[in-house]
Protein 1
Amino acid sequence: MAFRNLFRKEIKSVLPVYGIYALAVMLLHMVVGYKQSSMDEDTVMVVSVLLPYLIVSLIAIGSAFYQLYFEWRTNSVYLLLSLPVRGWKVLAAKLTASLAMLLAAIAWTSLCLVLLLMQSNWLKLAANGDGEGLGWTTLLNVGVNILWMYVLVVVFMMLIMQFTFLCGQLVSKFKWPVMVCACFGTLWLVIRVTPLLANLLQWTPDIVFGSGQDEVVYLHSGPFIVLLVLCVALLLVNGRIFEKEVEV
């Protein structure tokens, strides 16, 4: 019950930001759809697809930092002492709320993209599904794989932001330099360690991009397994630091 209430609280705290994002994305796609005939395909792809997903990922990553910053600034973090929830569960609730809003924003962006920009391409896509080009099964396979990889990376960066803020609270002076060092130091360590650990997972099955008669691409799953393990480890470490800081 406490976890559920905390989850709802975090949803309400980030809902206005994602509401503004949803409105902005809809307006952006309407403008791009109106100007699409005078724009080249690469520009349309960058503005209507890559830019919205980049922005929403930055919002999710930034919210992971701001949620804790707001708790400390308003001293509302000490209200969490009354909750029968461990520190890592408190941070998991914050993370889950941001992740839920991220997935909702991705779904909304995809819906706007399909309804507002791809109306003129339905016949072409249908024809591709019947034979030429990439089939629907391949498109679905590639889309799902890209989605979970994207979400995994964003979740990892959100955990990095939580870790960054919590490290800053362990010192009384020079908080921001400590946070900067914690952030970039952790990223550097992960970049150096991940390939080494991934080599130990050569036996794991590859990730398959494509299906059927289309060209199939295989991607080693080791780095993503390592990243998933690091996410779990970071969540536990963040929870331990959180408990130490607020004396749960």
Protein 2
Amino acid sequence: MVTSILDIDLDYFNLVSDPVQELSEMLAWANRPVDILADKHADAMRRWVELVASGKLSSPSHILHADEHHDMMDQKSSINIANVMYHAMSRWPKCRVYWMTQDSIDTPAMWLDDNVWKRLRTRFRTGNKRPRKWPTPDFLSVTVSADFIRPDLKDTLMDEIMRREKKWHSCGRLHTVEEH
């Protein structure tokens, strides 16, 4: 079974030439409302875990991780901003992660133990464009990460998200964004 998460961290847009256009294109491709709006990425991941445990979300097979950071910088047992994708890949062993970034300054290989990276690397890819055949998302998660993005850019991107959410609601599609 394919279950795909589009995981957008707003800090991804720091290096994008037209952030609103890029966000708009991502959301149009997703063709669904935002399921979770979180302040911090670790909060979003904890909510995914809860939803999978409750059966409200199937274990993800694909995560398109649009983020300035790969979030595989440590192997601590508790979920934090530095290890969200490490936890996703460790918890869901069939999950593939595509890290979409405009400028990758490092790789998880620099941070993870060699044996851990060897186990995960076949399911981890990176690039600056969405893979052509990546499955459309069944779940859309947005993380604000206010400490990593300029306030004016954050506000502009949130305005675009809220504009699109209003369209979903005006179409009669009932959906409530969970905020964490």
Protein 3
Amino acid sequence: MSIQPTLSTTRFLAASRCNGQRCLSLQELVRELIDLATDHANLLGVGYARLAESGMAWVLSRLSVEMEKWPAMHSTYTLTTWVESFSRLFSSRCFELREGGEEGPVIGYIRSIWAAIDVASRRPADLSELTPLAEAASARQCPIAPHPRLRMPEESEERQYTFMATDIDCNRHVTTARYVELILDSLTLDDYDREEIGRFDITFTHEALAGQKATIETARCDDGVLITAIKAAEEEARQFCIARQAMRPRQQPVATNQNI
């Protein structure tokens, strides 16, 4: 089987996938990244069905999104993905986001790290048998910094949340997009009218399940950075994920009094 090293998709940005600032929302971008990664994995023969044969499932371990510009409502943009590297425990996958078609200007890059879990034990699984991943690894560059090590500052604000049925995906744990939404809610609508995300990093450490109670801790740093951790709301609480949002002044003013 010939290896297809990259996969691209061109999308029209409908209003239903926009945020209050009429741009592509981060959670929608994350969903699209996962869908495109899934499609490429299927083309390579290492998708959901192949892993299920070995009792495994893909999980996202780390994600870094760096954007020069966010696609605006009713615009067109193109996402391209490729495998950067592959090891026994992790696969590194990158994405490029262009304005318009495949020849349009680049407006963002994304790095992601994927692992597999044993569905029965919920423990990390060995990817060594997935040889198409090694064959697909590309020398194509992703010119953004690697994922940083994230630590929670000592002082933070807290709020509580209980994971519900609609927060759960096909692997029976909380979806990546739901974590992102909870993290984004650390700021207000007015905050996002003034500022936009320049870079977003998130690390996943443990899975959360329906019915679990969570504590969401947010620390605001002096340099426009927010650190948010989502933890189990119990003693010796395990951390589900931790994220870093680097904010910048919004490039275009937001029209708050216009209808679509």
Protein 4
Amino acid sequence: MRVLVVLLALSGCCLAQLSVKMPGDIVLGGLFPVHEKGEKSPCGAKVYNRGVQRLEAMMFAVDKINADKTLLPTIRLGVNILDTCSRDTYALNRSLEFIRGSLNNLDVSAFECNDRRPPRIRSNSTGPVFGVVGGSYSSVSLQVANLLRLFHIPQISPASTAKALSDKSRFDYFARTVPPDTFQAIALVDIVKSLNWSYVSTVYSEGSYGEYGIEVFHREAQERNVCIAAAEKVPSAADERVFETILGKLLKKQNAKGVVLFTRAEDARGLLNASKRMQTSLHWIASDGWGKQQKLVESLEEVAEGAITVELQSEHMPGFDEYMMSLTPDNNHRNPWFDEYWQDTFSCILPQYMNAEDVDQEICSMDLRLSEKVGYEQESKVQFVVDAVYAFAYALHNLHRDLCRPKDKVCPAMATYDGGDFYRNYLLNVAFKDLGNSEVKFDSQGDGLARYDILNYQKLPNTSGYHYKVVGKWFHSLELNIDELVWNRGSDVIPTSACSLPCAVGMIKMQQGDTCCWICDKCEDYEFVYDEFTCRDCGPGRWPYPDKLSCFDLPLQYMRWDSLFAIVPAAISCLGIILTMGVVILFIRNNDTPIVSTSLDYLDFSFAFLP
């Protein structure tokens, strides 16, 4: 315990970073990738649009719940939202704040007792940390889940899809509103097979998301006779040189035109950048790490054209777009990163951040607003963030109903209720329709429903713009509209990605090492193709069909006397008989001559009748 106290004290001293804090009777923690990874520091300078939207989605959901008179009517939810900077170790350190807050709120100092009444939460307390929404990256969730389970704090992720997180022996306080990558990997193999590709390369990110996902893809591909030409891992904090090296290895496999990506967004963009610099073109099939992100393909549209991506099927959250479009730096003071997001979105600088070096930069106008015209689009995981918050709210509502009186806020029994029991008895058992009228529930492993959209990145007709077009869906099986696919440079012809082309009729495969690579060898005229690797003799009286797939019995043919083929041999035979008889007669008539008489009569006559 002493070690823990020292650790928490150090974290409070050294990690005094910004956070979003809204007081409430019950506080939900939040973990979102607001900033990118830093090269020499934990956090980079770039602000992620998706991270800010997910953060705002959590506050949007909390605002709606707090305004709802039927859901947790006597309890006000608060938040404590932290930036993970897209880095698992940094997120783990930041999560210590949840632990410290949880311990503080379980201490008796958080309660007050007046007039011999039962203990109740102090009015100025932030309330116990009942659960955490996040993280986004699977690597972050894996680290944080291991910490939170030690203190019985449930966690719901709106984006982490690593298969390992379904293991309840290790992550028994973890749930998610999204499905595991097992289904996504199967969907990717289904896409590859539907294109008749048998030879592809793969690229995956270092960490649980990429490594677990590509493992399932490789296993499923092998079972379905899809060969892997090259499998390249993108290390953490990869630079331009690393991406160019990986791309060079992919290009060496000239027949593997298709490349399957199971990468984080920044790694997918790194590959596209390398492809643009090296002026090369490949055909991409990508997981939801790419999904339908516009920022990922910004200025890289030409090398991304034709990409097929998988994205979790999500519904537009009604009211969220209006909420986001109403926000400005002047009215959104609870989000400390919103100013950065604003400046990045509009490529300007707010007056309060100007200094002598910024005189040439454009100052942000007071009239600026988020809209579709400036590229605003609801991020695909917003629904799952909102669903995660509502899942906590419904579970807490049921817990309050069972333990507290109707007019109570957080009664002592609820404040001290074990997080493990809350997770198993309440959180996993919620089932409801969300704001978009989609069904939300968890299976026994705490996983969400597996539904995916299949997208194709296409150029808009008669314009210079590009967009993601939905060309199919996956729910247990693939439905793909092949005719709607558009490839590089607007081609509608499905490219070939095979080590060897199929053999012609009457030919078999002679394999050369890899099961997907072969040369074609022709069967003999009297042989048929027994299987794709073997020719077999049809046997006596049989002959192969033209397609060489089987044999048939040769029909018996009899010679007719009026046939030319009968008349000519018969005439020749008759002539031979006549000549033979003439020789015999000649021998008989000249039997007393010296030449004939000196010969062996029996032998001479035998020669006459021999053929």
